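Final report, closing paragraph on structural work. Over the funding period we assembled a curated collection of sequence-structure pairs, and we close with a single example.
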Amino acid sequence: MPPISRREILADMGLSIGGMALGSLWGGQTSQAATDSASRGNPLAPKPPHFAPRAKSVILLFASGGVSSLDLFDPKPKLNQHDGQPVPAELVEGQRFAFIQGRPNLLGSPYRFQRHGQCGMEFSQLLPNLATLADKTTLIRSVHTDNVNHTPAQLMFATGHEFAGRPSMGAWTVYALGSETADLPAFVHLTSGLQGTAGSHHTSSGFLPGVYQGVAFRSGPNPVFYLADPMGMGRADRQATIDSIVSLNRERLAAVGDPEIATRIAQYEMAFRMQQTAPELIDLSHESKSTLAMYGVEPDKPSLASNLLLARRLVERGVRFVQLSDGGWDHHSKIFSELPEKCLAVDRPLAALVKDLEQRGLLDETLVIWAGEFGRTPMLEGQADKKLVGRDHHKDAFSIWMAGGGLKPGLTYGATCELGYRITEEPVHVHDLQATVLHLLGLSHERLTYRHQGRDFRLTDVYGRVVHDVLA
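Its predicted structure, as stored:
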């Protein structure tokens, strides 16, 4: 058989030049859905939503460890009044905590809260920049989840289920809607700080085809593993290698007719283009000095600030779902010394992201979420010394901060009791939050299904409701 050039192969197949390395990056699972999709063309081709969407993309900042709502979003004067006193026995009787045992004392917050904006939303003094965005913020104070431990709670938030193996919210989104960009992955994962115990399951495609899995980006000249040419291999050598692989894949495609092979060839084209686009994408030197200063980005210093700026650059280029993992929020001790440091790192750049998106006309179509897997208890954990105390995991009542993407701005939704222990108004389960995110993207959480092991699965399992009251 005479040698076939890459150009001839792709012309025959109706594909552009064959993007391959992402097949290994994404884990290339084979499934009937992927095969059917490949037979129709590119599995990442844009697909219509179920109904008109409010948002086109999502930026999810996941604070693994559990953010203390009582110190940031949900002031409790009564809790402060009874600081140091034993918690009412009826609140904790029969309750399970991660570490607290017996009947602990209450722990008030030392931080001052004030109302901000025309809406009068309350913010802690630890979040001065986010406080200026009160009238653009949607704050839910009544979120709850099912498990008090990190890994299952993180999996529940990411995948709608407490055990590994289910697709993440980003994977479901790309499976349903495809990609708006041919030069970058539709689902990108960025990390800063300590990482959550659920690891890569946060962005897994689960039982969906591997093409929908999140692609991890990192700082530096090689943002994606295995994307750069190997040491000692020039561009001509790389092209010859790709031509040979494409030729072999085409022969196999002709022999067995498996459309998944055509999909693999198409993925090489994505990788080929990303060798040019990804390094330019992460080069923040193209941003203005005022933009870098607004985010607090320091040159050549990877940080949450630089990741949030990168998130804006990603959605600006058509990336559908950007997930940022920011660890270090698990404050079992030293909460009043460590929490201010974490807030200092997130407050300025997250507020800058919202302002930047708005200035560029992107906020209305970009849903921004800052959340952890659960909250923290109103009771202290550890020693009575205020320099050493912390808060335990609390699954029954916590807050989530959101902005943009079709939400009702300036809204504080739901409420907790005077001690911040129980929800008293408008409970929102994590499944409800997932259903609402999909709804904003134009997707019905009940219709978005995938057949696996003989039945239809969905992100919200058999639960969830859209929280219409938070929609604009």
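The chain has one domain: 42-230+283-470. The first strand starts at residue 57 and ends at 63. We thank the funder for supporting this effort.
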